[in-house]
Amino acid sequence: MKKPLVGALFAVLLLGAGIAPATAATSHGAAPAGHTAVKAEKEIQAKAVNFAGTVALSNCSGSVVRTPSSQPGDPALVLSNGHCLETGFPAPGAVVFNRSSTRSFTLLNASGSGVGTVRASKIAYGTMTDTDISVYQLTSTYAQIESRYGIKALELSTTHPVAGTAITVASGYWKRLYSCNVDGFVYRLKEGNWTWKDSVRYTSACQTIGGTSGSPVIDNATGKVVAVNNTGNEDGQRCTDNNPCEVDESGQVTVRQGINYAQETYGIAACIGTGNVFDLNRAGCTLPKP
After folding, report:
1. Average pLDDT of the residues in 158-183
2. From CA 163, how far away is CA 182, in angstroms rounded?
3. How far apart are CA 202 and CA 186, in angstroms?
4. pTM, to two decimals
5. Residue 218 near residue 67 (C-beta atoms within 8 A)
């Protein structure tokens, strides 16, 4: 994870100079500062996925998402990282729940152009314990967003991702697509004071950078969100900030410099009930409670 990006102007200056930000909005955060060109065949494959439904935060990326049971009249939800919250990084064990927020998000169309601004009414859920997610409830419904901007929400998958799956990380902040595959899963991913369970490890083609934190990880075949991009090992250090390490069931630690990770999202839908309201006591909900 990295520290929040300073601001849009600074980011634009960096981008204009062809320099990737050395600090991330939190982890996409923990990604190498350099951007490696994606192979031509990967770029072709990624064209099936675009930016429609993604959003740019002030310091991170995100996406408008829905569960399979969400209704057009429900208040829309925006998914990002817990470390992207405007309230700062939640401490280990902490959960932000139903906290008022007026945060704004730039909504993007398929080509990556901003088409308008949507605004939060609250932080419905946020944590960096076991996972690294934030979910904002918006003042707009899905129907209102689609009617005004022609943008549909991305659907959250409700099944565990599969190793080898072709995926695209779609960054609304940088308006970049990163295409690779799910390399495997990490029993425990430890970074500084935080530990995440059953994390997604990318193959090396996804060289995400600071500011891509919170990007949806989209299954190319289904178009559904299977994870949220959050960190990577920058310097080869062991289990430090910006340098997560993998810990297996026996406690053995593995460091993979330059490799990046995401947090699975298939369990989120089980915690959301009628009206897109989070209910952490619902059957099947395993998200940490306040």
Report:
1. 98
2. 5
3. 11
4. 0.86
5. no
